[in-house]
Design a protein that fits this description.
21% of the residues lie in helices and 57% in strands. It is of the alpha+beta class.
Length: 167
């Protein structure tokens, strides 16, 4: 019986410790949400004291990366000859206004209070210029597929350098 009690107690302790390591963040379409202290501590490997000391420099932003594929046909008098294809990778980031949530002198996390500034979009294209064809040919049947979102989330930084995605 004692052996069974030790096994059960060991499982309870393991489950409890595992539960403490779990952290979560939320953010809505308006930039409002919450980032738990554990999310930030996990990125930087900080103790509670280190989080307390570095809290004024912590910044957050949202980031969404999507890819769009474009196809078109190049045509000349002899009829369609080739089909061209290119893709565009788009990453949009926007800062978040944060304030610190405290529970009895300890930071519990960061309240996200909306977006800060305008979104910034970076675009990278691979392949020929959109709609380009050899001289004397005409681009027809241009199609842009619906963008596929590759990733979306919240990133954290200290003083705006080296952004890290929160898990």
């Amino acid at each position: 019986m004692r052996k069974l009690m030790k096994v059960v107690m060991g499982m309870v302790v393991c489950l409890g410790v595992g539960g403490l390591a779990f952290a979560a963040w939320t953010v809505d379409g308006s930039g409002f949400g919450f980032v738990g202290k554990g999310d930030v501590q996990a990125v930087y490997g900080w103790s509670n004291k280190q989080l307390q000391n570095n809290e004024p420099n912590v910044q957050f932003r949202t980031s969404t990366t999507s890819i769009t594929e474009h196809t078109w046909t190049c045509d000349r008098d002899d009829g369609p000859q080739t089909q061209e294809r290119t893709w565009t990778l788009t990453t949009t980031t926007q800062g978040l206004i944060d304030s610190t949530a405290r529970l009895k002198n300890q930071i519990t996390g960061f309240n996200l209070n909306g977006f800060s500034g305008d979104p910034v979009t970076d675009t990278e294209t691979d392949g020929p210029a959109l709609g380009s064809c050899p001289v004397g040919w005409t681009a027809i049947d241009m199609v842009a597929e619906e963008p596929v979102v590759l990733g979306s989330g919240v990133e954290v930084s200290i003083n705006g350098s080296d952004w890290f995605e929160l898990e």
